[in-house]
Each structure stands twice: as C-alpha cells, then as structure tokens.
Amino acid sequence: MHDDRVNSKDEISSSSSCEENDENKNILNPPNRTKMSKGERRARKMLVKLGLKAVPNVHKVIIKKSQKMIFAVSNVEVYKVEGTESYVIFGDAKTDDITNSINTHLANKTVELLGGLRVAFTRAD
C-alpha cells in the first residue's frame, strides 16, 4: 500500500510557500537563537504548514513527569496549533529533581536566616 500523505524530500526542502508570512519567518528564523541544526530547520518548516501561532510572554516551561522529576525549559519559544490545546515548545530542556531542589533551597534559607553564620560539625571519636 502506498500512502499519498507522505511528503517527498522535494516537498520538505521547498521553502517558497513557507516563508511568505511574517509569522512563519519568525518560526523559521527565531530572533533569540543563533544557530539551528539541519534537523531543527526541517522540523520547523514542517510545523509552519500546521498553522502555528506564537504564544507571547512565555519565559519558562516546566513539565512534570512524576512526583519527583520535572523538566525545566528556559529561554523557550512556544507555539500553539490553532483550534486545539496542543503546543509546540522549542528550547533546551534540563532535568531537575524536586527533592534535591527543595533541600538546597531549605539549606540556603537556613543560612540566610542565621545571618550567614556557618556552623561546622565535627565528629567526636
């Protein structure tokens, strides 16, 4: 069986119809990114055809995988697919362990409350 919906390599690489709209130019050449890989450029060209709209004023996206593990994407570009609640997120995702972050935050707050006083514990043998 041959699927007619599969795009050929020529259709993916043609950019004449993709770059007509100003908003599409922002997707293909974002202002805050310096260099894109070849795969990312191809993915963006395919996403332009979906009719994405940029979501303004988004600075950070946090994706919760489980109770203890999250993915934080900072310096993010977010686009929404019209007519749905689907979003496309471009950025560098970093994993973060919530329990480790909480313990570090509590330790810093304790030092801050004590006025910078550092206490050293020694072991008595």
TrEMBL record:
This protein's GO CC annotations: nascent polypeptide-associated complex
Coiled-coil residues: none
Biased composition range(s): Basic and acidic residues: 1-12
InterPro entries (UniProt xref): EGD2/NACA0like, NAC_A/B_dom_sf, Nas_poly-pep-assoc_cplx_dom
Gene3D superfamilies: Nascent polypeptide-associated complex domain
Domain NAC-A/B stretches: 37-102
Region called Disordered, residue ranges: 1-41
PANTHER family tied to this protein: NASCENT POLYPEPTIDE ASSOCIATED COMPLEX ALPHA SUBUNIT-RELATED
Name this polypeptide is given: Nascent polypeptide associated complex alpha chain
Upper lineage: Eukaryota, Sar, Alveolata, Apicomplexa, Aconoidasida
